[in-house]
Specification:
Length: about 425
C-alpha cells in the first residue's frame, strides 16, 4: 500500500503550527516585560538587556544539544521535552518576582531559552516532510503560528498583571503564569498528536528526492559551512536575529522611560511580533517562487529601514510602525535563510547542522541583547538603532556576492555546453 506523504505533511504542519502558536504566545508575553523586570530586579538600567541575553545564550547552547538529541529522541520527544523546560522556566521566573531575586529570574530565563530553542527547530521538522519545491511554504506555515503569539502574547500582559495585583503580588509575575499554562498545553499537543515522527517521515521523503542527498555521505559541519549558500543562509538568520533583538529588547525600557503604560508597551510589541509572523505565508511562497536570495535581501533592507526610523519618535503610533517593519524584515530573513539552509542538507546532516545554526543565532542575539542594554544606557536608543542598521549590511553583501557567483557559474556552464 502506497503511503500518502502529502497528507502526512499537511497533518504534521498543522500540529507544528498549533504548538508554535501556543508556545510563541507564552514566549512573547514574557519577552514584553523581560527588560523591565531586569532593570527592576537588578536595580540598574544598564542590566535591562541581561535577562534577554541569558535567555538567548541559554537557548543557543541548548539548540546545539537539541540538534543531536532530536536524532535520538525524535522530533516529537525533543519538542515535548523542550516545552516541559518552558513550563519549569516560566514558574521559576514568576517566583523570582515574588522573591525579588535577580539570580533566580536569570535561572528561569535559561530554562525558557532552552524551551524556545527546541520549539524553533520545529520549522525544520515541517521542511523535512515536504518535497524541496514546497519547503519554503512549509516553514512559513509553521512560523506563521507565531501570529497567535504576536496578537495574544503581549495583550495578556495587562490583564495578567491586574490579576497578579488582585492577589497582592507583583503585577509583573502574571505574564509568566500565562506562559506556564500555554507551554503545558503545547507540550500535550505535540506529545499526543505529532505522529508519525517527522524524523522518520523525512528520511523516507528524502529517498524520493535523491538529488538532495550528499553522494559522499554525511559531511562535517565545517565542510558544510564552507559552502557559499550555507554562509548566506546562516548569515541571514544570525544577523537578522541579532538586529531584531538589539532593537526590540530595549524598546520596552525606552518607552517606559517616556512614561508609557504597560498597555502602550504591549501594543507596540504586539505590532512588532505581528510583523514577525503574520506575513510568513507571503515570505515562504516568495522564497519558493522568486528564490531564496531576493527574499533575504528584501528582509535585510526592511530591517535597516526599521532601525533608522524607530528612534525618530517615542510616540506609540510611529514606533509601532517601525517595530512592525523590524518584525517583517526579520521574517523574510528567517524564512528565506531557513529554506536555503534546508536545501543544502541531506537527512543525516539536518538535525546537527540546524542545531548548530540555531546555536549561532542564540549566541549572537544573546550578545546583541547584552550590548543593547549597555549602548542604551551610555549613548541612547538612537545609537542602538544606528548600530543595528550597520550590522545588517553584512547579509546583503554576502547574498549579492553569492548570487553573482552563482550566476557567473551558470553562464560559464551554458557556454561550455
Amino acid at each position: 500500500m502506497s503511503i500518502d506523504y502529502a497528507s502526512i505533511a499537511r497533518r504534521t504542519t498543522r500540529i507544528l503550527f498549533a504548538a508554535q502558536s501556543l508556545g510563541s504566545a507564552g514566549f512573547i508575553a514574557a519577552s514584553t516585560i523581560n527588560s523591565i523586570v531586569g532593570a527592576k530586579l537588578s536595580g540598574q538600567a544598564a542590566w535591562a538587556g541581561v535577562p534577554a541575553s541569558v535567555y538567548q545564550i541559554g537557548g543557543a547552547f541548548a539548540a546545539f544539544g537539541w540538534g543531536y538529541g532530536m536524532d535520538r529522541l525524535g522530533r516529537r520527544g525533543g519538542l515535548t521535552l523542550g516545552l516541559i523546560f518552558g513550563v519549569l522556566g516560566a514558574g521559576v521566573a514568576g517566583y523570582a518576582l515574588i522573591a525579588q531575586s535577580f539570580g533566580i529570574f536569570l535561572a528561569g530565563m535559561v530554562l525558557m531559552g532552552t524551551a524556545n530553542s527546541a520549539v524553533q527547530l520545529g520549522r525544520f521538522a515541517a521542511a523535512e516532510v515536504n518535497p524541496p519545491s514546497q519547503r519554503g511554504r512549509a516553514i512559513s506555515n509553521v512560523v506563521i503560528g507565531g501570529t497567535m503569539g504576536a496578537i495574544f502574547g503581549p495583550l495578556m500582559v495587562g490583564p495578567m498583571g491586574d490579576w497578579s495585583k488582585s492577589l497582592g503580588i507583583d503585577e509583573l509575575s502574571g505574564p509568566y503564569v500565562a506562559s506556564l499554562i500555554l507551554f503545558a498545553i503545547a507540550a500535550l499537543v505535540i506529545w499526543l498528536w505529532l505522529r508519525p515522527d517527522p524524523r522518520d517521515v523525512g528520511r523516507e521523503v528524502a529517498q524520493l528526492y535523491p538529488e538532495t542527498t550528499s553522494e559522499n555521505g554525511a559531511r562535517s559541519i565545517p565542510m558544510i559551512l564552507r559552502q557559499p549558500a550555507t554562509m548566506v543562509a546562516m548569515s541571514s538568520m544570525v544577523i537578522g536575529q541579532l538586529t531584531m533583538v538589539m532593537l526590540m529588547v530595549i524598546t520596552s525600557l525606552h518607552m517606559k522611560d517616556h512614561h508609557h503604560a504597560l498597555g502602550d508597551i504591549s501594543f507596540v510589541i504586539s505590532s512588532h511580533t505581528f510583523g514577525m509572523f503574520a506575513f510568513s505565508i507571503l515570505s515562504g511562497r516568495l522564497a519558493d517562487r522568486i528564490g531564496r536570495a531576493p527574499v533575504i535581501v528584501i528582509g535585510a533592507v526592511t530591517l535597516i529601514l526599521a532601525c533608522l526610523t524607530a528612534p525618530l519618535s517615542p510616540d506609540v503610533l510611529p514606533i509601532s510602525v517601525a517595530l512592525f517593519l523590524l518584525g517583517l524584515g526579520w521574517n523574510f530573513c528567517y524564512v528565506g535563510g531557513s529554506t536555503l539552509l534546508a536545501d543544502q542538507l541531506s537527512p543525516s546532516e539536518r538535525a546537527r547542522t540546524q542545531g548548530f545554526n540555531d546555536l549561532m543565532i542564540g549566541l549572537t542575539s544573546g550578545l546583541g541583547s547584552l550590548m543593547s542594554g549597555f549602548i542604551f544606557a551610555a549613548l541612547g536608543y538612537a545609537t542602538v538603532g544606528v548600530v543595528s542598521a550597520l550590522v545588517t549590511v553584512i547579509p546583503i553583501a554576502l547574498t549579492l556576492w553569492w548570487s553573482m557567483g552563482r550566476r557567473a557559474a551558470l553562464q560559464k556552464a551554458s557556454v561550455q555546453n
